[in-house]
Task: structure prediction
Amino acid sequence: QNKINLGYTAVTDFTAAFVAKEEGYFKKRGLDVDMQLLTITSAIPAALQSDSIQVGGTVPTVLLQAVDSGLDLVAFANASINDNTGKNPALLARTGSNIKSAQDLVGKKVGVPGVGGVMHVLIRRWIMEKGVDPKKVTYIETAFPQMSDLLKAGTIDAVATADPFSTRIEQAGTGAVVSYVGRDFPSGFSNVLYAANRGWAAQNPAQVQAFREALVEAIAFVEKEPQKTRAHIGKYIKLPAPVLETLPIPKMMADLAAPRLRFWAESMRQQGMLKNEPNLSAVIVK
Amino acid sequence: MNAQVVPLGQQPRQASSPRRQAAGAGASKQIRFDRVCLDLGGRRIINDLDFVMEPGEFVCVVGPSGCGKTTLLRLLTGLVKPSTGAITRGGVEISGPSRDVAIVFQDYGKALLPWRTVAGNVSLALEAMAVPKEERAGRIADLLRKVGLASHAEKYPSQLSGGMQQRLQIARCLAQEPAVLLMDEPFGALDAMTRQGLQDEVAGLVEELGTTVLFITHDLDEAIYLGDRVIALRANPGRDSSSLAQSIAIDIARPRDQLATREEPEFLRLRRHLFDFIQEHHK
Amino acid sequence: MNAQVVPLGQQPRQASSPRRQAAGAGASKQIRFDRVCLDLGGRRIINDLDFVMEPGEFVCVVGPSGCGKTTLLRLLTGLVKPSTGAITRGGVEISGPSRDVAIVFQDYGKALLPWRTVAGNVSLALEAMAVPKEERAGRIADLLRKVGLASHAEKYPSQLSGGMQQRLQIARCLAQEPAVLLMDEPFGALDAMTRQGLQDEVAGLVEELGTTVLFITHDLDEAIYLGDRVIALRANPGRDSSSLAQSIAIDIARPRDQLATREEPEFLRLRRHLFDFIQEHHK
Amino acid sequence: MRTLAMRLRGAVVPLALLLLAEAGMRAAGTQSDALARPSEVALALGEALGDGSLLRASAQTLGAGGAGLLVGGGLGLAAGLWFGLSPLAGRLSALTVELLKPVPSVALIPIAMLLFGFGYRMEILVVAFTCFFPMLMLSQAAVAGVEPRLLEMGTVIGLTRRQRVWKIVLPAALPRILVGFRLAVGIALVVAVTVEIAANPYGLGYGLMIAQQSLRPDLMFAFLFWIGALGWGLNALMVALQRRCITPFNQGAAS
Amino acid sequence: MKDRNGLIASAGSVAVTLALLAAWSAVSAQRWISPVYLPSPAATWQALSEGLLQGELLALTLGTVERMCYGWLLASIIGVALGAAIGVSPMLRAWLQPMLELIRPLPASSVMPVAIALFGLSPGMVLSVIAFGALWPVLLATVHGFGAVEPRLEEVGRVLGLSRLQFIVKIGLPNALADAFGGVRLALTIALILAVVGEMLAAQQGLGTAILAAARSFRSADLFAGVALLGAIGFASNALLHLAERRMLAWRR
Ligand SMILES: Nc1ncnc2c1ncn2[C@@H]1O[C@H](COP(=O)(O)OP(=O)(O)OP(=O)(O)O)[C@@H](O)[C@H]1O
Ligand SMILES: Nc1ncnc2c1ncn2[C@@H]1O[C@H](COP(=O)(O)OP(=O)(O)OP(=O)(O)O)[C@@H](O)[C@H]1O
Ligand SMILES: [Mg+2]
Ligand SMILES: [Mg+2]
Result:
């Protein structure tokens, strides 16, 4: 039985995989999965390409850009989707900055966790849909834990972030929510997904299928057993216990089809991030 | 006109040479070695050295290679401290280098600043004495003329021959206008003619300025020609015998002359005396 | 018994000194300077030098400081190439250093390996000649005894006096058993007695081995005492006059003696002659 | 006695700064996800040392960094000696070296990632590339700076090229080569950690990033401090090595 | 004669570089390595010229150069001054060196988060981190240069009665200059690297961000173009420094 190295980053979007591992859903289907915590999302395509990991959790923007540049990667399962009732992602402005709307962002500096990442693309689309030219805003790459300090220091005027960081910023009083950006978009498009090398996916259709099934079973478990789920998360994401308690779990959905990626393909084309029109159905293996 | 062969440890009571009366105010300090011993690397290099240099006196030091001549001179600069005993100047113990004691090092190649030109190396001494900038150029040109380097002022030391480097070092020392001048085989790298010229130049200068001089040489003729007194050091003194093997007063009138003086019977007599003495002590 | 004052450019046709007949097989090569000129830093240092050294000949070079003596010697090693003209040995142009040409450098402090002991520095030459390890110790001890450094074998150069460093360099050169020995003011840092001892030691050795020697000195007595011929160089030759100012054959019998030879009338005559000549040319 | 006092003096300035930081942060009541008080850092350091995670991470970083250093430093030394000894080779390679030298190792990480994925090979490659050039430059300069008179002497007494290298050039250049090596050791550690921060999922840099992402600034600073201490220890080791190789007598050969 | 040799050597050096370029071209033409990882020289050149002429690559490059220069200047000045102070004063050495030795091995990349927390994401912070990282080679080399003053020269200084300051300025510094120049050269390389790292980590517009963006989107031609530009910057700045060195160390020839 082949081993599967699964590369993920420290976010709860991967909760289903944590549960499937902990509850033995992978093992039950003959999958020997090793969980590998990585610090940067953007390293995942390279790691897949070089076969350091066989399955990688990544965001659609990174995947689409990698494919656009000629890397032969595919996505085969979804991790989380946008939920327009949730609180993530959120746009917070520095206390005292008087930023109330997209218009107020003109000429200001906005911290985003990764330039070219999902939040960056999303916030630009949001600004654009509010009728403002997103180019009139400066985006600065800022690691999550530093956002609060940088807001306080006045280095940046606003941040696009997610829980637990948005709550902590509010509690510390350094910033206040301008908008829960995700609520201005329809539910259902993919936020995080599972990707693999096309070669690996083609050679191991059974494992791909088994992986998806294990995720489905795990998502059902998450809905039934929130307490146990949190305990499992704590094993894979090292956060202080009080933070872990309040961590929101995003909406998960294992099923992946082209429409779930269309939102991103559109946004990225608009923002000039892709050279070619992506062939979404080719990026997804069933 | 008699060589005073002074027994060890005793010094001439009175200044007897004409030069000593000519001593200027800056040099009015007696230098006294008081039972000085020095060990280096566990070996006794200098033992029980006891002698006095009168102000304005020109003392030459001779002795076999490795007998401690350079070491003796370093003791006088304060760069090396005696293991026992004391060296005083004007009654004050020498605690470290002082600007009015100049030294011409034996290894001339290492004592020059390689990144400064000939003129710049002389200038260093003037800068140390805070001579105003506008005065320096003239004095440097003057000094370089004296040692025959006037046309090489803009060269770097690495472009000079050995003898030229040594003359440059002498020029720098003269720039210091020292009260005491210590010279470690300064003319060893010079040709005969340049050497004789510089001998007379140095002798004239120190006579005029009343400088006290300690001059190391391995050339007995040179020692007698230049000195008021010649001191012979003993190699490997051990702990029983003093390093000072002999002290010979040279009673030959000044100014001396390269041709006439060297033919004087007294010169020849002293030469023979010193020669015999050293030959006897060698090996 | 007459000083052959040879006109410039012409050389003695025949080997006239007894030493030259004693030349061994290793030295059977004539050295010829053929209209050699050298420019350094845009200045003509050596001009139109033209002379021959017979195998086994002992040639001494004198001349004012900076006249190009060291440069002449470097030309012979092949370390410096002439700007025009050629230097041949046994008819073959000298293209670079060769093991049977040994050189004693003037700046002895720089030519020793500071990280090797006295014995180690001599050993270097033996290693170069691939002398088996077990033979080396004996030969090193032998050589050190010859130059009077036997009791300092384990010291580092920085612990030696100037004269001792120079003797160490000589020992290393002798270890090479060279056919041609080039010495650049080798005894400049030695005291009179050691110097005389080494003069005789070197003279005896090269006589025995038939070594060809080029010996630079600024001591006219030494040049005459040691040489079969003395060559005087001219400073600043320019482009009109040859660097070679004079070549004087020394017809004094060997072996020579420090006391007797120096008192011979021929010695004194040659000395005066050379002295006058140089004084005339100086300045 | 005196040396002990001297050593203690060296600790005064950093200790004072730490105390100042502690007091200042307590007074200001700093609450941050990115900063921590020195006392908290000390506790986290003790904890990480106790559970062995710090030592494991150190072994990984040192292993990869050391291997990179050996490969890159060794090749750099060889090339430096070659270029220093043969002016022709030195001049022919000059342009290429000058062009490649300023390429920052961080820019190589993505390329190395694509080729090797994460893991030791990638880290070793990047560390080796970075150590190569300083080692090359410094050993080339060390060889070129050997007192020319010594080389002349070596030629004249008939040492073969090989002998000249072994008996003159290397001993004379050794002090400066050691300085270069010491520098390279420092660089190797820095680059190894940087690679781990940017990509590789193990070692001290990874630990540092994880600590930061887990909202444990105290642990992050503990890692930072440990990296500094490790570098300091390595440097002390190098200094000791230098002392052993360079006696008071051959020191002069360095300059 | 000498000039001609120099010319030949320079030509040879260019030839070697061209040969390597040709090898690169051959490798990418044969597709031994996928163009996703290794673009051809031609593709790189195209990305480079397009970026410089039409894109914003030129402005980014200038930003990086400026950052590098200021950081390097800062590092050199502080390094030489501090190195001189430590090299001359055993007292200062005892007080400061242990701490400096502890700070020195800290990777600038891991110091950056702290610097961001302390100083914010300002250009000044990036500059100080560049200066911090580039400082060490200058400092070390200067201290070493001061320590390696020929003992005889030290004695000359003492005998001439040079004051402490005079000794530093007239003997210590010139003597250390040769060593310090080596350090300063290295500092330049490090300053460039740190300018890039700083841009990557602290979001200052420059080549670093361009390279990072190219790497993230796997545009290998753009990535190589950026790396080539960095090489060119390093080469040009080094050549200038070399010229300065030859003028200031004229006595060595
Ligand atoms: N640093 C040192 N350590 C140990 N011994 C030393 C040191 N320096 C000098 N000596 C020894 O001291 C003795 C005297 O040395 P010094 O240089 O004074 O001799 P010198 O009389 O000047 O000889 P020369 O005429 O050859 O220059 C020598 O035997 C030498 O080996
Ligand atoms: N590298 C160089 N560049 C320029 N000029 C030089 C160089 N080396 C030597 N010279 C010049 O060549 C001349 C001869 O130098 P050389 O060392 O041969 O003299 P020398 O006769 O050995 O003198 P000395 O007896 O003082 O040692 C000098 O005028 C010197 O300035
Ligand atoms: Mg001496
Ligand atoms: Mg000479």
Observations:
- The domain at 41-252 of chain E is CATH 1.10.3720.10 (MetI-like fold).
